[in-house]
Design goal:
36 strands; Immunoglobulin-like; 26% strand; six-stranded mixed beta sheet; Jelly Rolls; seven-stranded antiparallel beta sheet; alpha/beta; 25% helix; disordered N terminus; TIM Barrel; globular
Length: 833
């Protein structure tokens, strides 16, 4: 195996470049000829989207209307589609070639629907586990993210579909995403948060970049000249289309002059009534407008949109090749984190009864929420996968284990009066946003409104006030539950004390609070709910349950009766989504569920569904088996069954570091914004380049599971490390070679990880940084030779003074291992001038 990763990148780069040089002059000539025929009004019209997901076309000039679709887990819009493993799951495969396969199939799915643009992949760096869109992205390491992104984008664009690198940049949380200001120093920006975007441009020749909602160093992304014009277009040579996220443009003139080419979904800021006068007044030049239109035309011509129908009816919408790519992504990305006593893989001949328990067992949870959510033809749940995997060799029992929203609403014993009241609470519905005046109507009801989609045009805010009492039947701890969606807000008072509150922010997650209560006592309840107009829709829940209702007794009895219990917990599309950060803790009652099942059955396996880490401290030591499935796509049930029963050997590795506690995370002190009285909220990236495993090492903090970690059913070792040349000079490449051996009795794949350290640098550098990897498939007893190449860029840091990458002479430490914390081989070389 000679240079497996780097040869792939060179091949992909050559593939992309081979499509363009011969055609470049012709593309430019065609674009200029069309541009010359357009009126100024037509040009300005073209740089604002239309009808939600289209670039405007002009019949007079035979300019086609271009269709976009959400991604990146599949082709979301315009009907059902294949749902692929989430971006973070692809990153966990450490397999750029598989990412390319997935990209090819997503590109085919887009062509089957006639879409010209795929709005993906997402390339933001995982900084903290709570970010609601972590599941879309490629983990915490810029080197890994860049290589997975390059494979994915090349695959999509090989099918004649424009990939869109998003969200550019510093969009590392969903908390108040329109208002937060990401304060990132230049070195950190270039070393951590920009490399995946840079690789998308330079290596994969991505056709489009999407600006994010947030501000970066005081300027909104859509009007950030440093990022859009100076870095992307000038330094990287990006020649494609730079578009806004939906409704992310705030100042039309500033955005036009700062490099934004296309405002989506329509022209609200860069609209004719703003830009035409600005052009006349000399505030925006015609050349600036021409450049935007030229980029749109040139990219459309380059991808063949002027010369063919984009919809390819020969491609099946229900695509078996896509299903196989989705299955391989789920298999390769699922990470086995714990396997005490070699409980796994399960032996079908001795495992007669399996208890499948938990809210994520059924139905399937293929993806998180928001614009990445794809509705699949066939989403295979974990329950289905385990049952079909075991087949008739045994039996699979099933129970959700925790109360659903409907259970909570139904069993909450609210009453309109302290004595002799009606069931429910007294509701006053106001047709305004501040509970003012005479209610529109009043009635007694349960405080439960199922989430409803938004209606357009969005109406004004409305409010509901529920009042009444809760009278416990039993003494002890009771848990209050609240939940809302969209940008809705609420406050819960019990006996005049504020118990739970949700401020007005885009997107919500469930909340809970425990309270000691007396049996038969009437507790006064007031719940104020403000329903905001939002594209996310609206819905609300209020409930309260005693402790004995948190976990279903039937689930515990099933676990006791089974040979093995598998608990499926985590998040779903409603609790981990675009437009909201989630909690670090599991949703209410799930920790108690895992604890109860683990106490009932010593052979308990936990399977997590989430975009990143969760707090496991309450049960991690009690369970012998643990899988992280991320969001596995439509084939998640099949994939997990293959891994559970051993027909496929786990090979996924963590693309992020899993902290024991949130306070251990290097970003914990500055992830949430400071809230000034006026202006955008500042999010200071105080950890600098020491993100993820870089920061844990610097701080001397041992994580729960380190970056790059993942177990297998076999064992591997590395040997014979060699670096050449022994004494390289500045600007010279270094080859790192070694052997990988399977020392166990099963075939499997190991991810050989190459880390580099430069402790003597003139600036603080991490003790180790991932600078190479190779996924190596080996039979028992087999050995393969691996060579990875270090370029001068990979030995460099970003020098702020020269605004460029700088390589210094000095000692470099080479480390090869199974994870960032499990290093088998070490060596060093010294770079000479």
């Amino acid at each position: 195996m000679r240079k497996p990763v780097f040869c792939l990148i060179l091949f992909l780069s050559a593939f992309c470049l081979a499509q363009t040089p011969q055609q470049t002059s012709d593309v430019d000539k065609r674009a200029e000829a069309i541009l010359a025929q357009m009126t100024l009004e037509e040009k300005v019209d073209m740089i604002g989207g239309t009808d939600g997901f289209y670039v405007r076309g002009f019949d007079r000039l035979h300019i086609p209307r271009l269709k976009m679709t959400d991604g990146p887990l599949g082709v979301r819009n315009f009907g059902l589609s294949t749902v692929y493993a989430a971006g973070i799951s692809l990153a966990a495969t450490f397999d750029p070639d598989l990412a390319r396969r997935v990209g090819v199939q997503i590109g085919r799915d887009a062509r089957a629907k006639g879409s010209h643009f795929l709005l993906g992949p997402g390339l933001n760096i995982y900084r903290a586990p709570m970010n609601g869109r972590n599941f879309e992205y490629f983990g915490e390491d810029p080197y890994l993210a860049a290589h997975i992104a390059t494979g994915y984008i090349t695959g999509v664009q090989s099918q004649g579909v424009i990939a869109t690198a998003k969200h550019y940049m510093g969009n590392n949380s969903e908390y108040d995403r329109h208002g937060t200001n990401s304060e990132i120093d230049p070195r950190t920006m270039h070393e951590i948060y920009l490399p995946a975007f840079e690789a998308a441009v330079k290596e994969a020749h991505v056709g489009a970049i999407m600006d994010s909602y947030n501000l970066i160093n005081g300027e909104h992304a859509t009007q950030n000249k440093t990022l859009n014009t100076d870095i992307a277009k000038r330094d990287w040579g990006f020649d494609g289309i730079l578009m806004s996220d939906w409704d992310a443009t705030y100042d039309g003139v500033a955005a036009a002059n700062s490099g934004l080419d296309l405002e989506m979904p329509d022209a609200k800021a860069m609209k004719p009534s703003v830009l035409l006068p600005a052009i006349q007044q000399g505030k925006v030049s015609q050349a600036t407008i021409d450049d935007k239109v030229r980029r749109i035309l040139r990219t459309a011509i380059r991808f063949g949109f002027f010369d063919r129908e984009q919809m390819d009816i020969s491609i099946p919408r229900y695509n078996q090749e896509g299903r196989e790519a989705a299955l391989d992504g789920a298999r390769g990305g699922t990470v086995l984190l714990k396997n005490t006593r070699d409980l796994l893989p399960l032996n079908k001949s001795t495992t007669r009864t399996i208890a499948v328990i938990g809210p994520n067992a059924y139905p399937a949870k293929p993806a998180g929420g928001g614009s990445a959510r794809v509705e699949g033809f066939t989403d295979i749940s974990f329950l289905q996968g385990v049952s079909e995997g075991l087949g008739t060799a045994g039996k699979v029992l099933y129970e959700t284990g925790v109360p659903s929203d409907e259970d909570i609403a139904e069993e909450s014993l609210f009453t309109t009066a302290a004595t002799n009241g009606e069931r429910g609470l007294h509701a006053q519905h106001f047709n305004n946003g501040d509970f003012a005046g005479t209610p529109l109507y009043e009635k007694n009801e349960r405080p439960r409104i199922k989430r409803q989609p938004a209606t357009y045009p969005l109406s004004a805010a409305k409010t509901i006030r529920w009042t009444g009492y809760f009278i416990p039947k039993t003494p002890g701890i009771h848990r209050w539950y609240t939940k809302a969606s969209g940008t809705d807000s609420y406050t819960l008072w019990v006996n005049g004390q504020k118990v739970l509150e949700q401020p007005r922010l885009e997107g919500q997650v469930p909340k809970s609070a425990d309270m000691q209560m007396e049996a038969g006592k009437a507790y006064e309840v007031r719940f104020d709910y403000r329903q905001e107009p939002s594209w996310l829709g609206s819905g609300v829940l209020l409930g309260v349950l005693p402790k004995d209702k948190w976990v279903n007794a039937t689930a515990v009895a099933m676990a006791k009766a089974a040979d093995v219990a598998i608990v499926f917990v985590g998040y779903d599309e409603n609790s981990e989504s675009e437009a909201a950060d989630r909690d670090f803790k599991l949703p209410p009652n799930q920790n108690e569920l895992v604890q109860a099942i683990a106490a009932a059955n010593k052979n308990t396996v936990v399977a997590l569904t989430a975009g990143g880490n969760v707090d496991m401290t309450e049960w991690i030591d009690a369970v012998p088996g643990l899988f992280h499935t991320w969001y596995p796509g439509q084939e998640g049930g099949r994939a997990l069954a293959d891994l559970l029963f051993g027909s496929v050997n786990p090979s996924g590795k963590l693309p992020v570091t899993f902290e024991r506690q949130w306070k251990d995370n290097p970003a914990s002190g500055s992830y949430y914004p400071n809230d000034p009285a006026n202006g955008p909220t500042a999010v200071k990236y105080n950890e600098g380049v020491f993100v993820g495993y870089r920061g844990y090492e610097k701080n001397g903090t041992k994580p729960l599971f380190p970056f790059g970690y993942g177990l297998s059913y076999t064992t591997f070792k590395f040997s014979n490390l060699k670096t050449t040349p022994a004494v390289p000079r500045l600007g010279q490449r270094v080859t790192v070679s070694f052997d990988v051996s399977n020392t166990g009795n099963r075939a499997g794949a190991e991810v050989a990880q190459l880390y580099l350290g430069n402790s003597g640098a003139s600036v603080p550098r991490p003790a180790k940084e991932l600078k190479g990897f190779a996924k190596v498939n080996l039979n028992p007893g087999e050995t393969k030779h691996v060579s990875l190449e270090l370029t001068p860029r990979e030995m460099s840091f970003f020098d702020v003074g020269s605004n460029n990458w700088k390589q210094e002479p000095g000692k470099f430490n080479v480390m090869v291992g199974h994870s960032s914390a499990d290093i088998d081989l070490q060596s060093a070389y010294t770079v000479q001038k």
